[in-house]
Amino acid sequence: MAELTSMMNIGKEMARKLEAVGIESAEKLLEAGSQQAFLKLKGMYPQVCLVHLYALEGAVENVEFNSLSKEKKKELKGFSDFLKN
Known about the structure:
Blueprint: H1 12-20, H2 26-44, H3 50-61, H4 70-84
Helix pairs in contact: 2-3
Protein name: TfoX C-terminal domain-containing protein
Domain TfoX C-terminal: 3-77
Pfam family, one: TfoX_C
């Protein structure tokens, strides 16, 4: 199993948080997907924000999070906003 930190946008702190919610490897993150992983993080770490979701999506897509398409960012923002309600 690959380390989370081997993925794009995933540093030691993000890896620690993901591991705390049961996502212990790159494969587990790919399996869960960015939105499910964000939902788990939000449950334990309410301060996670949209940038974290972008980072997770970038990790899943293997791109820098600021290289995500406008459409993808809009979709993720909609998901994040929905969780706030």
